[in-house]
Design brief:
479 residues; disordered N terminus
């Protein structure tokens, strides 16, 4: 031990004489930790010089130098600072996301409540028309089952079932997804009214309650039949109208039924109680159509008296509107304050309950037919509206279902696109979700046999409403 110690001390003066630049290699040769500590002692007076230059000038091998540079790219303090910043950013992101989620939830609730208020006021207008695209012909499904022209149809509020009726007096319940018949209520022959459970005359109108419990149908024999929608079981028969029943509608959220007839009257029924409530008079000609939403009121089209009427049931009063030049054959509410009508003068009109005249009218909406100089406009046989939106549709017998966009505040009607459907479009209905439009088609008009289109098929056309890629937010405007 002592000899090795003295050898080390002998070497030390040499090391000192060599100068500070040799300190690096000497340290590299040291194998013993103790001797390294002791070797530093004699050089204490050179400590400042060595410490200032040894790091920069010592001939460290390149490999080690690069390793050191890689390892000590940042100091521990810098690393701590970087990690702290990362952690703070992470916390900030989490808090922002949480706040965003909370605000999103409150926005959803607030938005929903706002929509309900606007819906009740009749001022909600969802702008979806701009996103709609015309479907390919191959995407349109045809459901065949009726032997004679379809006259009317309804869709259940959950969009799962379609009920259709025709001139063959039958009612068919369809499954939308599979396109299969779920139930058929056969029609009876004329004169078998006493023993046949069902209709024995052309069915002109149908309605389904918003909870999907009751289905009502009206026919040329002045009868209203009430069915259990789930099983198609016959429940009640309402008599009282003195002419064909041409319009039916359940008040939304209730089992109150409004009916209209060619006898020019509107009747109110309570289906739960199997009871008649009251009759309202006012039209000067046969009523051709009726519709209602959640308010205690209904709207009717008065045919050749050329009037549209809003009936305030509780007040037993009515508002009268004029606009069309021909017989008003169909009517549909868009929301509580706006409606769409179609007439046999070929025009489609958009109305507000606050204005006596139409807000907008499109004349010859489906073009004309006939010889040169004797052209007649195609009658508008059916209209439909996607509730609380800016999208409506109309049907005639020019082999086209026409879709329309309602302008800002329902001030104008602009054509969107048409869908080729051969035959008389006797009934049109949008699904609640707006995913598809259903057309009831026949070879003849639902009210008569003025023309016959032989190449047409009596059936139900399910037209998908394709949308462009959706925007982040669904735009809505109010009046």
């Amino acid at each position: 031990m002592s000899s090795s110690f003295f050898i080390k001390t002998k070497e030390n003066p040499k090391f000192v004489k060599k100068g500070k630049n040799t300190e690096g290699p000497k340290r590299k040769g040291d194998g013993d930790g103790k001797s390294k500590v002791r070797a530093k002692k004699p050089n204490s007076k050179y400590n400042e010089e060595i410490s200032s230059d040894s790091e920069t000038e010592s001939p460290v091998p390149k490999k080690r130098q690069s390793n050191e540079e890689h390892e000590y790219e940042e100091t521990p303090q810098e690393k701590k600072l970087r990690l702290a910043k990362l952690y703070l950013e992470q916390l900030k992101e989490e808090e922002e996301k949480k706040a965003e989620d909370d605000s999103f939830e409150t926005d959803l609730v607030a938005g929903r409540l706002q929509e309900e208020v606007l819906e009740q006021k009749g001022k909600l207008q969802r702008l979806i028309a701009k996103d709609l695209m015309p479907p390919d012909a191959s995407e349109i499904r045809v459901l065949r089952g009726h032997k004679l022209p379809i006259t009317c149809l309804v869709i259940s509020s959950d969009d799962k079932y379609i009920f259709s009726a025709a001139k063959d007096c039958s009612i068919i319940k369809w499954d939308v997804e599979s396109g299969k018949k779920l139930h058929t209520i056969p029609g009876g022959r004329k004169g078998t009214e006493d023993r046949h459970v069902g209709h024995t005359a052309h069915i002109l109108c149908m309605a389904i309650s918003s909870d999907g419990k009751y289905l009502a149908s009206g026919d040329m024999n002045k009868l209203i039949m009430i069915w259990e929608a789930e099983t198609c079981k016959h429940l009640y028969k309402f008599t009282g109208h003195k002419g064909p029943v041409s319009g039916l509608s359940f008040r939304k959220g209730t089992h109150d039924l409004y009916s209209a007839s060619h006898d020019r009257s509107v009747k109110v029924w309570n289906v739960d109680e199997n009871a008649y409530v009251e009759t309202l008079f006012g039209h000067q000609d046969a009523i051709t159509g009726l519709d209602s939403l959640s308010r205690e009121r209904c709207v009717t089209a008065g045919g050749r008296d050329r009037s549209v009427r809003v009936w305030k049931i509780a007040e037993e009063s009515q508002l009268v509107f004029h606009g069309h030049e021909g017989s008003i054959d169909c009517i549909q509410l868009i929301n509580e304050e706006h409606m769409i009508t179609g007439a046999d003068d070929g025009s489609v009109s958009l109305w507000s309950v606050n204005k006596k005249k139409p807000l907008s009218t499109v004349k010859q909406a489906h073009g004309c037919h006939g010889d040169a100089g004797l052209e007649q406009p195609h009658w508008v046989a059916s209209v439909a509206a996607l509730q609380n939106s800016d999208t409506v549709a109309s049907g005639s017998h020019n082999s086209q279902v026409q879709l329309w966009k309602c302008g800002q505040n329902y001030r104008r009607l602009e054509p969107l696109f048409s869908v080729p459907v051969p035959g008389f479009i006797n009934s049109l209905k949008f699904s609640s979700s707006g995913q598809f439009l259903v057309a009831g088609v026949g070879q003849e008009h639902r009210l008569g046999r003025w023309w016959r289109i032989k190449e047409a098929k009596n059936g139900i056309y399910v037209i998908p409403l394709k949308r462009k890629p959706p925007n982040p937010e669904e735009a809505k405007t109010t009046e």
